[in-house]
Every structure is written in structure tokens, then in C-alpha cells.
Amino acid sequence: KPSFGLYGTRKTFLFSSDSSKPILPCSSTLSEVGAGLQREFGFPVVWFGRCVIQVQFTDSGISRVLGFSSLLLNCLLIVNLVTRVRLEMEGEQLTEQETALYDRQIRVWGADAQRRLSKSHIFVYGMKGTVAEFCKNIVLAGVGSVTLMDDRAVTNEALASNFLIPPEEKVYSGKTLAELCCDSLKEFNPMVHVSVEKAELVTLGQQFFEKFDVVVISSCPPATKILINEKCRKLSKRVAFYTVECRDSCGEIFVDLQNYKYMKKGKADGPASECELRYSSFQEATSAPWGRLQRRTSKLYFAMRVIESFEEANGRNPGVFSVEDVPAVLQLKRKLCEAQSVSESFVPDTLLERLVIGSIEFPPVCAIIGGILGQVHLFALIPLKFYTIN
Amino acid sequence: RTGANNSHRLFCSSLSPEFDSSIPLSLFHLPFLRLLFCLQTTSVNQLEQTCNFFPPLSLSFSTSSTPSVTLFRVSTPFPMASLQQSPAIKGAKVLMVGAGGIGCELLKTLALSGFEDIHIIDMDTIEVSNLNRQFLFRQKHVGQSKAKVARDAVLRFRPHISISSYHANVKDSNFNVDFFKQFNVVLNGLDNLDARRHVNRLCLAAEVPLVESGTTGFLGQVSVHVKGRTDCYECNPKPSPKTYPVCTITSTPSKFVHCIVWAKELLFAKLFGDKNQDNDLNVRSSDSTGSSEQAEDVFERKANESIEQYGRRIYDHVFGYNIEQALSNEETWKSRNKPRPIYSRDVISAELMQQNGNSDKAGSAGDPLSVSAMASLGLKNPQDLWSLKDNSRVFFEALKLFFGKREKEIGSLCFDKDDPLAVEFVTAAANIRAASFGIPLHSLFEAKGIAGNIVHAVATTNAIVAGLIVIEAIKVLQKDFDSYRMSYCLEHVTQKMLIMPVQPFEPNKSCCVCSETPLTLEIDTNHSKLRDFVEKIVKAKLSMTSPLIMHGSSLLYEVGDDLDDAMIANYSANLEKVLSSLPSPVTSGTMLTVEDLQQEFTCNINIKHREEFDEENEPDGMVLHGWTQVPTKPKDDDDKPPTGNGDSSKTSQTETVEAEAEVVVKINIEEIGASGNKRKAPDSRDISTDPPSNDVNEATAANHKKVHKIDDGDDEEELVMLDHWDIDTNKKQKLR
């Protein structure tokens, strides 16, 4: 059993025997090391028995067979070799392998956007069905890395809407939602690094989020969302913040790109002009006085605020409802409407009832909302061509 | 009894102790129903049992202080999420056609949504470029059946459902009307017009509802087709694959795509394809030289001619000599930029020619698809723009490799976007021609996209479209006719919407597929052969696979497995005859009946004799009228609604709608196949100010009202929810 670790960004790979954060656990067996290398570099690494290692870099036109007898030496040399070839090949360009895999989408958004995409690092909290869809989409699109966090165990609800979780109890028992999703996501695209962080979300420090370009939070109380959003906003680097919630046939996405500059297409082939969007924080966006919002603001916005207030006031976990809560929710709605001095018809009862009773996710809607959230991430990178969600 | 406020309350009082569980059960099947029960306490338990039996309504019952009567409200809007348990979904038998980009997403979403009996047909095998979005497939599956691998992948997270996969073409004869009849709904995730038409006809014949879909880039579209209730897939014009006039390709290219077509259809086909195939490259060069003998010889490699000599001769002929010939016709160049002849000696020296390429690196002869001129020349990035010199080097190298490593295939090759050497050759040839005509050059990556008609595809759009398909499928299964929607995924937020729902069209009364309106064909009956009619009309336009052609009671042509030799001989003799000299002559005024037995589709064609056709605009030498296809007209005509809609539709389009229409109209390309098919953005402002005029055809008027009632653009509920039942009802009232 070799004792070693391997970590780094896509460009520099360090090799150390006492790494504090190995990508591969120190107790890795030979075949795990092989699989790890393949996952890390996207190259087929074939192991024969204990001694001979064959590395084929077919995509760069280099084909070498290496034979070694010392296990430790194997690992050292292979990492060195892989690193060198990788550096040679990569540079600022997409590899041939990437061009082949991403061919159809590069035709949509161009090689430049694909490169930027492959350098984006994403943190995801709360593995619900919609979030699983989102993760699938960005892993397929080829982001740099995805870090998952969700220590909850598998529930029937998770099994119903999250296709990343295998339904056999012997597979999922003892594992957290994040771990199970990570296992499935890794398979979708060997070029994307998917990993799990275990921690209490609210206790994470500001510097934790600095490692990421995007933070996505789902299924947690609004207070936590506000807290994380503020942490992201305080960083010197811009970290985009998204939340997503899906209930029944309805869904809500919140996007905070802070100060966001983009080029706006001029009218009738005129020159493009630079525009700046100032995004609201989650707190600002959810505490606006109702009467002053645009007249065409979706009713769902108000309904979701009522639901949030109810959960907060009653100390409920998000989405834990029963039909008995309907009267209390409706009563709270009347109170809120009164406090905001708007008519009660502002928030339709039918909509609230739907959100309370159908608090679980509806898979086709997960697919749609997860798809749109995936595009939000893409469009933040390629703003000229497509929409930005405010 | 219906309660107040149009809210579909049902008030049930004093249910007897013989409370029959089937009564409320059938009530619960109605979506969005509110039940107000006034019950004896004894009935509560029974009702409770019923509700438990039906999970969406698993309720807790609270009894009020009055002991004998309990009053409570049971169900509020029907929660969609709990539909997973609904018998309508569980018991449904669903056919999916296509397991590609949309198919993978669709199969996953269907399985998650509670569907338990899914059948899936796909003839394709998995390729590397699928893996970025067809997430059920892995590298190790490359080369395997899409339908089968998709089935296995979904069974892993839904092991208890039944999925049947067919690695076959949906046009195969075993997928006949009886096969289609067993399904409750058919869901299409196809990539070509031909198969879509075929499935449409089978669905019409089998009377099975069809949900059709398509995506390209971030644009997507989902529509529902139910016989008699909505339009069929072929009621509205579809864009046909773009064709170019012959002389633009052979003599006066002005766009890069013209050069690609020339390189792919003419030069590549001439050098490596079937020598007996008609080829305009041949015709043109012989025309211009005046000696057909000489032109024939040019492309034939002479004995003792080295591959370098041969390459140079071809190069100089097509890029040099032919251009000089063309230049001699000054008339042509009066209003055009003159091309520049290019000769190989000016671009590439003799020594360079010798060193050109290291064949060892080019790939093994055992695997033709591994042979690559780029590899042997050390060119790495397919996105790089090559110079004229590089293009010429690739041209020679590719030619050399074809003759050196793939000689056996020469004479039978067809261009294939997955054949790297073919793509390299076509890119290089197109670029050299482009350089000659002063057209900007393109990279291999771009050229491959143009030459291979590659449809842009992204995972997210497919996921969204698959979600929309499932929602429509559920409405179809619940027979919720009023809620059917066509949906468009847009690139830009339009009227605050990314996904725009539109009421489905009424059936087009003059549609030759779902109604029985005859078509008219203008054709030269004295010169066109039956073969031309079969190839250009019956196959290319009507998309028939096993056609049968009748004139009155006499059979002119037929395709089938059960024909005897005499019949086959008879039919193939007929194919070569001109229409007017067939055993039963076809002349002006004749009505032909064309039938496809598999599709159970019959179509009558009135023949009209015409002698002259415009080579540019009517390259087929015949014109079919009444067939719903986009007319080749200037761009702004795209905004016109399809046939059958009167002028009124135009007046009801406000300017804003017109601007947005561009987004909608852009939704076309092969994979979608429904562009000219312009639907109005839902906006009621114009309907309230613009009452339909009297002369409007009824169907159109009905369509309009419906289109507009979806969203009234006011500050009313704008949220596009699935329960627009309530919303629509309110709207209807408001509009009235």
C-alpha cells in the first residue's frame, strides 16, 4: 500500500507523502490509485499485476509503455510524467480530448467560454432533486470542480426525486446524501473533479468560500441563506451566490452576481456597450416592501415569503408540512398582507395550499428548474450572447 | 354542487353510512378540486381509508366539537408531485422514439415521475461527442446501442419498472399501426424530419396522442398532437433542408458553405465516390473545355503517375485551370468579384511536397477512422485557422493517405462527418476554393460543423424540454385537453418568460396528412420518368418508406417483400418510363394515388403538365403544391402564418410581437423542424383592441382567441403554473 497523496489545481500537481489533503486516501490500494489517476487526468492508466504500469497518452500522439518494479517509484514517476505531459498539452488551449467530448456545446458557446467553464469551481449545499439536476448539468458541461455538502441520510423523498441515489439499501445505508451523489456525478464526466466536504454549513468561515466561484444553497432556512450570502459578498473576489427551491410544480431561483459587468448588444448591429447590473443580496431581495414591487411580480414570490415566514416562526425545517398547517399558513398570510398594506388577493390561497400540501418536488419541474439554473451559471460566463437572470 | 367564486368546490353533505369508497375516489381523480365535506363522524373513518388508499389525499381528520357533524375541507389544488402515485401514470404504456440528447433526459424524468411501462426505440449507437449531454452513457459504452444502454442505466436507479428497448429503426415494418396502438402516448425525441413525419402518420393512424420535441442550442420546443383536437405534426410548414442552385456551387460561390458543398458533394464524391454517379463537377469542366474526353481523364489516376504528380494535377485542374476557364466568361463577373486561379507550384515548393507529412504518425491502416492528415503533418488544434499553404499541405496529405492507406475504399466512399480524413480533405479543399474566391477561410472545427450539418446541443435545454414533455404527457393521460400547451424555450427573456407556453393549433383543414385534401404536381409528363417522381416527390417530399402508386385501378409501382419476380421486373421497367408512356399513361389531369401501407397514409396527387422549369428556383424540374413546406421566399415572409390563415392574423400582430417572433422563428434547424410555424407570443393586448374581422376563416379566429387567453399581460397572475385551469377560467371571464 503506497503512502502518498496527490493534489493541486488542473495545472500543477504536487506529490507528497504527508499531504494534509490528499485527493486519494493514504490507504489506497493499487487499483484505487489507478482509478484515481484516471479520474484526475482523464487518461487511461492500466495496471498489470503489481509491477508493470502502462500509460497511454493517445490523445497527444504520445504512446509509452513504462515498466517498473518498485511500487513507490511507480507512483512518483507516473505523477511526474503525467504532470509534465499535462502541462505541455494544456496551456491555454482545450485538449483534443476536451474538444471531442464538448464538440456540440463548443459550437454553441465557443471555445473561450468552455475554457472559462473548466476553470470554475462550484460549491453546492442541499442535495434535493432540483440540485441533483443542476449538478448533472454542470458536470456534463465540464466545470472545473464541484464540491458537495449534505450530511443528511437517505429518505424516501430523496429517493423519489433524486436520480443520483441508487435505491438499494445496502448501497446507500451509512452514506450521506452528498457522498452518494458524489459517487454518481463522478461517473458523468471524468474530467470534472467532484468531492464532498463535511461540515456544519453555518459554522463555515468566510475564507472557506473563497475557494469557489459559485455557491449554491438549497433546502435550508432563509436566515442561513442570508448568512452565507453575506459571507460571499464580503470576499474580495466575486463569488456568485444562487439559491434554488422547488415545491410541487413551482420553483424559485435567486441569483446574486453582485456587481456584474457585461456587454450589451447594440441595436441593429450597432456597437456593443458595457452595462453594469447591481444585484441585490438575498436579504434585500426578500425583504422588499410588497406594495412597492413591480406590479407584474410573480405571485409565487409572495407565496414563498409567506412559507418562509411560517417555517421560521414555527421552527420548521424547510418543506416539513402537512395539510393541517393550511389554516395557520393562510392566517399568517392575512397578517403579512395586512402588515405590508396590500390586499389579501396578492397571494392566492390556492397557490399557498399547493405549496404547503405539495411540498415535495415534482421531477419534471426539477428537470426544468435545474436546467435553467445550469444555464444561469453558463450565461454568467458568456453574457454577450444570452440572457442574464436578475 | 359547484360553489362560489368558480373555485370548483364540491360540497358533499350527509353521506350515508353505506358510504361507497368509489365515489370520492372518482372525485379525487379530478385535478384541482376542492371538496367540502359535511359528514357524519362514522363516515370519517371510511373516508380516511379511501384517502390513504389514494396517497395524494392522505389527510388527517380533525373533528369539530359538534359530535355528529364534522366540517372540513379536504383537498386543495391537486399536488402535482403526488401524481407519481396516480394510476393514470402508473398504468400508462409509453413509447419513446429516440434515446439521444432528449431521450436520455426524458427516460430519466419519466422514470422519476412514476411511469412504469416504457418502450424505447433508437437505431443509433453511442459516439464520443454524445457524452457531453447524453448522461446515461459512458466512455466504455461507445459503439453500443443507445436504447439498450439507456434502459440499463435507468433501471439502476428504478429497478422495479419495466423498460423495453429496441435497437432498431422506427421505420422498420414491425413498428406498424398495431404496434403503436398498444401505447397511451408516444413521445418523440428525434433528430430528423423524415422519422418525425413517419411517427406522426403512425400516431394518426393508430389514434395515439403524440408529444413532439426538438432542441438546438438553447432553443427548444415541445408540442402536443392529438388527432381531431390539435394540429398534426405536418399541418404546418416545416423547413426543408437548404439546397443551393447548381451554378452557385459550381461557378459562383459567395459564401463558405458553397465551397463546402462543392468540396463535399462534387470534388470528394468525384475523387473517392462512386464513379458512375452523376456529378456536376464533371459536367461543368467538360462544358468549359469543350472536350468531354479530356475532362473525364483529369480525375483518373494514370498508370505510373506518382501520388504527388496526381495530386498536383488535380489541384491545378480544379483550383487553377477551371477558374481560368470560368474567368474567360466575362459576362459572369460583371457584378461579381473575380476569382483568382491558384496553382500548386505557387503555394507549395517541390521540396516541401517531398517532406510533406510523416505517414507513420498518420494512424494505422487497420482502422480507417484513425488515419489523419493533421496527425501526420503535426497540426494539433482543430480550431486553428490554417493558411492557404497549410490547407494545400492537408489537401495533398489527405489525398496521399486515401490512396496509400485506404485505397480499397476508393470508389465507394461517401462523406461522413465522423471520418476525420474525409473532414480534413473537405476542409482543405473548401478553404483553397474560398481563398480563390476571396471568401474568408474557416477552421476544421467550423468546417466540420457545416459539412456534417451538426446540430448544436446542450444538456440543459434537453433537460428542460424533457421536463416539458413529461408535463404534457401527463396532461394527455389525464385527458386534460384544455391545458395542452406548445412550449418554446427561448434564449432571451421575453415578456419575463424563458419558456413560453402557447395554445396548440387547430387542425389545418387543408393538411394532406390528417385531412384528405389532394395535392397538385406540376411536372413535364413527357420527359420526367416515374423514377424521378418516386425519388423527388414520393420519397423526398412525402417521406414514404414503402410506397404504392396507383392510377385508378392500375398499379404503377410498389415496394414490398412479397412481390414475385414478374412484378419486380414490371415495376423496374416502369421506373425508367416517362410518365406519359406508362402502361396507364399519366398526363395532365390524371389523379395519382400514392399510398404507404406501413404508415397507413394515402395521398391523392393531381397531375398538371408543365414544360419549363426554372433551374435556379425549381431544381427538381417539378413543383408540388399544397404540400406544407416553407416556401423559398425572402426572410420577412417567415413571419407570415401558415396556409389557411387570413389577413386578419397579420393585423392582430402588434409590433412587439413581431420583434419577438424572430426568436420564435429562429427555432428551426433539422432537429426541430418547425420554424415558419410562427406562433404568436401570448399577449392579449392586441386581442382586446383588435377584434377579428369577419372574413377570417373560423379556425384561425378560434386559434387566436385561445392563444391570447393564456396570459393577459396585465397585472393578473403571470406565473406559468400547471394549474392554469383556474387562471384560464378567470381569464376567459375577464376577456368576455
From TrEMBL, chain A:
<feature type="domain" description="THIF-type NAD/FAD binding fold">
    <location>
        <begin position="102"/>
        <end position="373"/>
    </location>
</feature>
<protein>
    <recommendedName>
        <fullName>Ubiquitin-like 1-activating enzyme E1A</fullName>
    </recommendedName>
</protein>
<dbReference type="GO" id="GO:0019948">
    <property type="term" value="F:SUMO activating enzyme activity"/>
</dbReference>
<keyword id="KW-0833">Ubl conjugation pathway</keyword>
<dbReference type="Pfam" id="PF00899">
    <property type="entry name" value="ThiF"/>
</dbReference>
<dbReference type="GO" id="GO:0005737">
    <property type="term" value="C:cytoplasm"/>
</dbReference>
<dbReference type="InterPro" id="IPR000011">
    <property type="entry name" value="UBQ/SUMO-activ_enz_E1-like"/>
</dbReference>
<dbReference type="GO" id="GO:0016925">
    <property type="term" value="P:protein sumoylation"/>
</dbReference>
<dbReference type="InterPro" id="IPR045886">
    <property type="entry name" value="ThiF/MoeB/HesA"/>
</dbReference>
<comment type="similarity">
    <text>Belongs to the ubiquitin-activating E1 family.</text>
</comment>
<dbReference type="InterPro" id="IPR035985">
    <property type="entry name" value="Ubiquitin-activating_enz"/>
</dbReference>
<dbReference type="GO" id="GO:0031510">
    <property type="term" value="C:SUMO activating enzyme complex"/>
</dbReference>
<keyword id="KW-0539">Nucleus</keyword>
<dbReference type="InterPro" id="IPR000594">
    <property type="entry name" value="ThiF_NAD_FAD-bd"/>
</dbReference>
<comment type="pathway">
    <text>Protein modification; protein sumoylation.</text>
</comment>
From TrEMBL, chain B:
<dbReference type="InterPro" id="IPR030661">
    <property type="entry name" value="Uba2"/>
</dbReference>
<feature type="binding site">
    <location>
        <begin position="98"/>
        <end position="103"/>
    </location>
    <ligand>
        <name>ATP</name>
    </ligand>
</feature>
<feature type="active site" description="Glycyl thioester intermediate">
    <location>
        <position position="247"/>
    </location>
</feature>
<feature type="binding site">
    <location>
        <position position="514"/>
    </location>
    <ligand>
        <name>Zn(2+)</name>
    </ligand>
</feature>
<dbReference type="GO" id="GO:0019948">
    <property type="term" value="F:SUMO activating enzyme activity"/>
</dbReference>
<comment type="similarity">
    <text>Belongs to the ubiquitin-activating E1 family.</text>
</comment>
<dbReference type="GO" id="GO:0016740">
    <property type="term" value="F:transferase activity"/>
</dbReference>
<dbReference type="InterPro" id="IPR000594">
    <property type="entry name" value="ThiF_NAD_FAD-bd"/>
</dbReference>
<keyword id="KW-0862">Zinc</keyword>
<dbReference type="GO" id="GO:0005524">
    <property type="term" value="F:ATP binding"/>
</dbReference>
<feature type="domain" description="THIF-type NAD/FAD binding fold">
    <location>
        <begin position="87"/>
        <end position="511"/>
    </location>
</feature>
<feature type="binding site">
    <location>
        <position position="511"/>
    </location>
    <ligand>
        <name>Zn(2+)</name>
    </ligand>
</feature>
<dbReference type="GO" id="GO:0005737">
    <property type="term" value="C:cytoplasm"/>
</dbReference>
<dbReference type="GO" id="GO:0031510">
    <property type="term" value="C:SUMO activating enzyme complex"/>
</dbReference>
<dbReference type="InterPro" id="IPR045886">
    <property type="entry name" value="ThiF/MoeB/HesA"/>
</dbReference>
<keyword id="KW-0479">Metal-binding</keyword>
<feature type="region of interest" description="Disordered">
    <location>
        <begin position="279"/>
        <end position="298"/>
    </location>
</feature>
<feature type="binding site">
    <location>
        <position position="146"/>
    </location>
    <ligand>
        <name>ATP</name>
    </ligand>
</feature>
<feature type="binding site">
    <location>
        <position position="235"/>
    </location>
    <ligand>
        <name>Zn(2+)</name>
    </ligand>
</feature>
<comment type="pathway">
    <text>Protein modification; protein sumoylation.</text>
</comment>
<keyword id="KW-0808">Transferase</keyword>
<dbReference type="GO" id="GO:0016925">
    <property type="term" value="P:protein sumoylation"/>
</dbReference>
